[in-house]
Amino acid sequence: MDSFEINKIVAAVLMVALLVIGIGKLSDVIFHVEKPETPGYTVEVEQVSTVSSSTTTTAEEKIDIAALMAMGDIASGEKIFKKCAACHSIIKGGKNAIGPALYNVVGRKVGAVEDYKYSKALAGYEKEWTFEELNGFLKKPAKYIKGTKMAYAGLRKEADRASVIKYLNENSDNPVPLP
Which pTM value belongs to this model? Predict the structure, then answer.
């Protein structure tokens, strides 16, 4: 194949591209349609109010935490926690990883690990990690505290959340009494 044939092929491709663009521009000129000033119909959209973390907490407090914690099992919680271990340490004196160390987390103030840089949402959250708070957070972290940088989808099953909370509570110097 010599260069003359390659030039003919490239010219043909360019000619087709120009022809398509030209026909499109020409049809816009010939068949110009003006948009109406007011639309023919309006779409009604309901205003969704944003839910603050305080209203989320009150909704979560309605859960019977004692019944929820009765569903949990520490051995099962240890197995489920393996998902969390990719980002969190649970051993005493453990280092922070992608997420903060979780030893002694139950009963601790949210955002209290000294050498970990929390998101603004968690640093400004003025509560403690109680059983209720952990339950709400572990269900769907990004929805429970908006702005957290924890990108975990959450634990949907109540028994799984209760098991992990019990496991977290056991990994403490002074485990909090169960409700």
Answer: 0.64
pLDDT by residue, tens only, the chain of 179 residues? 788 899 999 999 999 999 999 999 999 888 877 887 887 777 777 776 555 544 444 444 467 888 888 888 999 999 999 989 989 999 988 898 899 999 999 999 998 888 899 989 988 999 999 999 999 999 999 899 998 888 888 898 999 999 999 999 999 998 998 88
CA–CA gap between residue 79 and residue 63 (Å, rounded): 25
What does the block give as tokens for 51?
């839910």
CATH number among 1.10.760.10, 3.30.450.40, 1.10.150.20, 3.40.50.300, domain 53-170: 1.10.760.10
